[in-house]
């Protein structure tokens, strides 16, 4: 049985993400560990999830998937995957050891108790027989319903994968109800294809760390082609934002309004006099759209993702990404900085432009 720990936002790295026009491929990248800090098994110093419990750690991203065709991959390493070793976990008041730990990706998730997952683990056919022993990786596509796990299909692989503690990519290529499962280190292997009876509109993606596993995620990659604005939806509403900010002790969280800009409209045009909200994440802030859109106004509603700020080694300075009025991501060399705690400047040096926001102190 898998016990879950849901996480609000976990997409660590989004690449080749088509946001606006079906005929055009747009790329964006995020390196977000948002929400990981909320689970006890996450170590912020190492970036690892070390699960020493009987149940799975299940980490779900909050953004819903509304397109029927997408690809989702995670490149992860399981440090507790050494041949001939076992790892201690706590089961109730007892301690026991497991030797074959599992980890993988989650997709088609309704919540942290109902989802599909691709899980990998390594085994030896005859551990103590040097002549006949063969190490292999087992890849399982599982269905979890009300925390009860059922294996839909599995396969064994012993080539083009790392069967110790180095990185492997685990992925699914989804086309409506058809799911292709792929695994590999330097070369992806398509292992099998299944038809799932129910692929849920608005489902979520995530990661799974099994009992005894100690996992580090290098990146996740989500790619799809759609002009659906809902790909930038978040769970935030005005009510939720107000409640969150009322309890927040973070001086930068809250509402920010357009102050001024320095840009040439023929190079980069600001889509409105925006009011935005900043919500803290483990690596910076999510920029949430509140109001003020003028260009493509009908495409924007309160709560949509407008961009992200990612911490750097410099205090109050961030790498940034911005989603423009047409839902096109802009992240090339974008920078952001706070001034005196009440001014946020977002710079677009490639376009020789910047926009400033001021913090709303009485809202």
UniProtKB/TrEMBL annotation:
It comes from the Bacteria. This is Uncharacterized protein.
């Amino acid at each position: 049985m898998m016990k879950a720990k849901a996480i609000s936002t976990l997409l660590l790295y989004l690449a080749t993400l088509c946001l606006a026009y079906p005929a055009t491929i747009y790329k964006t990248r995020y390196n977000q560990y948002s929400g990981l800090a909320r689970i006890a098994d996450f170590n912020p110093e190492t970036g690892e999830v070390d699960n020493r419990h009987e149940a799975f750690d299940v980490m779900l991203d909050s953004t819903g998937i509304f397109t029927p065709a997408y690809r989702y991959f995670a490149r992860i390493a399981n440090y507790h995957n050494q041949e001939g070793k076992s790892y201690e976990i706590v089961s109730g008041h007892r301690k026991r050891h497991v030797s074959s730990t599992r980890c993988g990706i989650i997709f088609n998730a309704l919540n942290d108790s109902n989802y599909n997952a691709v899980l990998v683990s390594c085994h030896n056919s005859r551990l103590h027989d040097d002549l006949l022993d063969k190490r292999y990786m087992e890849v399982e596509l599982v269905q979890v319903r009300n925390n009860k796990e059922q294996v839909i299909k599995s396969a064994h692989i012993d080539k083009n994968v790392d069967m110790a503690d180095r990185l492997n990519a685990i992925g699914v290529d989804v086309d409506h109800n058809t799911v292709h499962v792929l695994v590999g280190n330097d070369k992806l292997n398509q292992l099998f294809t299944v038809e799932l009876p129910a692929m849920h509109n608005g489902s979520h993606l995530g990661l799974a760390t099994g009992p005894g596993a100690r996992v580090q995620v290098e990146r996740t990659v989500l790619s799809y082609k759609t002009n659906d604005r809902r790909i930038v939806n978040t769970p935030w509403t005005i009510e939720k934002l107000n409640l969150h900010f009322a309890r927040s002790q973070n001086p930068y969280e809250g509402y920010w309004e357009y102050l001024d800009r320095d840009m040439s409209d023929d190079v980069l045009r600001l889509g409105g006099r925006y009011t935005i909200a900043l919500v803290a994440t483990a690596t910076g802030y999510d920029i949430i759209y509140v109001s003020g859109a003028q260009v493509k106004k009908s495409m924007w509603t309160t709560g949509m993702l407008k961009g992200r700020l990612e911490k750097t080694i410099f205090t109050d300075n961030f790498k940034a990404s911005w989603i423009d009025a047409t839902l096109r991501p802009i992240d090339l060399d974008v920078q952001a900085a706070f001034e005196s705690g009440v001014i946020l400047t977002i710079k677009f040096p490639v376009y020789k432009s910047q926009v400033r926001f001021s913090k709303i102190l009485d809202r």
